[in-house]
Design a protein that fits this description.
This protein has 6 helices and 2 strands; from the N terminus they run ββαααααα. The protein is mainly alpha-helical. The chain folds into 2 domains: 62 residues, no CATH class; 69 residues, Winged helix-like DNA-binding domain superfamily/Winged helix DNA-binding domain (Arc Repressor Mutant, subunit A). It is extended, with a radius of gyration of 22 Å.
Length: 139
């Protein structure tokens, strides 16, 4: 455990506030700082100081790293495994998980649309997610 000053990480802190944190948290904060600096450097090197409102994709190509073919393939395989796991659920669980995570509906909105209690929807989604987790862990 190491001590950090929260003022170094959070602009809202106007005075020094020291806190002991685990090494994993310190590494995560350091990785965030490195990523932020890398983004700044890419923007500086590519002189990306122009408006980002054009929507022509130039700024995305200059500032963000394009995924490799292997990364695209791995994501496609992971998506296929996820969809296969969702298809193995009951129709009700699959419908509720799809509405919640793919359409961004709240559990209360799903319950209202289906005419059931919100706790029923919550339990159904939780059970479905546990089953998906078990299926994906066995792959």
């Amino acid at each position: 455990m190491r001590t950090i000053n929260l003022r170094d990480y959070y602009p809202a802190y106007t005075s020094d506030t020291f806190l002991e944190v685990q090494d994993e948290i310190i590494e995560t904060l350091a990785q965030f700082k490195r990523d932020d600096h890398a983004y700044y450097e890419r923007r500086r090197v590519h002189k990306a100081y122009y408006s980002l409102d054009l929507g022509d994709g130039i700024e995305d190509a200059a500032l963000y790293r394009e995924p490799s073919l292997q990364e695209i393939y791995e994501k496609e395989i992971a998506d296929q495994e996820l969809y296969a796991a969702i298809r193995s659920l009951s129709k009700t669980q699959a419908r509720r998980i799809h509405a919640c995570f793919f359409h961004g509906m709240s559990k209360a909105a799903i319950a209202k649309a289906e005419g059931v209690c919100a706790s029923t929807v919550c339990k159904s989604i939780t059970c479905g997610l546990r089953r998906i987790e078990k299926l994906l862990a066995n792959l």
